[in-house]
Write a sequence for this structure.
């Protein structure tokens, strides 16, 4: 009798462990998919300034695009920093801050210096710094965001890899 009771206690213990595990796993999945969504939004905004980064002159509308793009990327990056910081990884934190800084500077230049001498060069320099931050962080984490550039690598989403981005594959 005692043995059966012990066995039942053991069984409910196992069930409890399994439940805890599942809850933790789905929380992790949710966190990771929100980070993905933020990154996709960053990407969408970033591409608008990237698309005009080689121009020799900017119209007012184009300065507005640079202003919006910088503002949105800076705001979204702050959200990523607040929610998905990695205090254990200084390089990651520095690159995240480099992304925020370049985006903010783009917005500031578009806001205060548009039309003035050197503003075009200054803003294009920040777009480059922004692009470098993307590339360097993704290299650090071994993330390939544009699968067409890496035909041999499967896109992370196809592989369903969302939580192992911290370790190189
Ligand atoms: C400091 C690190 C860091 C920087 C800087 C960074 N990213 Fe990311 N990026 C990540 C991480 C982490 C992921 C993976 C998120 C996940 O788990 O899905 C990611 C994933 C992505 C994805 C793939 C989302 C998907 O569909 O799976 C895109 C697109 C992306 N980043 C765009 C950008 C762009 C554009 C920039 C620069 C303007 C940038 N990232 C800068 C860390 C960074």
């Amino acid at each position: 009798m005692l043995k059966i009771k012990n066995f039942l206690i053991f069984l409910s213990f196992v069930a409890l462990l399994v439940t805890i595990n599942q809850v933790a796993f789905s929380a992790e999945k949710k966190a990771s998919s929100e980070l993905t969504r933020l990154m996709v939004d960053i990407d969408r905004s970033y591409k608008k300034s990237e698309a005009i980064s080689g121009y020799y002159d900017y119209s007012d509308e184009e300065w507005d695009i640079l202003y919006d793009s910088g503002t949105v990327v800076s705001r979204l990056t702050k959200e990523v920093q607040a929610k998905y910081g990695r205090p254990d990884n200084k390089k990651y934190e520095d690159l995240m801050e480099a992304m925020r800084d370049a985006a903010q500077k783009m917005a500031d230049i578009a806001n205060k210096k548009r039309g003035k001498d050197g503003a075009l060069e200054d803003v294009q320099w920040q777009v480059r710094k922004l692009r470098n931050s993307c590339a360097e962080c993704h290299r650090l984490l071994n993330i390939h965001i544009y699968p067409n550039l890496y035909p041999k690598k499967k896109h992370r989403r196809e592989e369903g890899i969302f939580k192992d981005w911290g370790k190189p594959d």
Observations:
- The chain has one domain: 2-159.
- The helical segments are 2-51, 60-83, 90-112, 119-141, 156-159.
- Residues 71 and 107 are 6 Å apart (CA to CA).
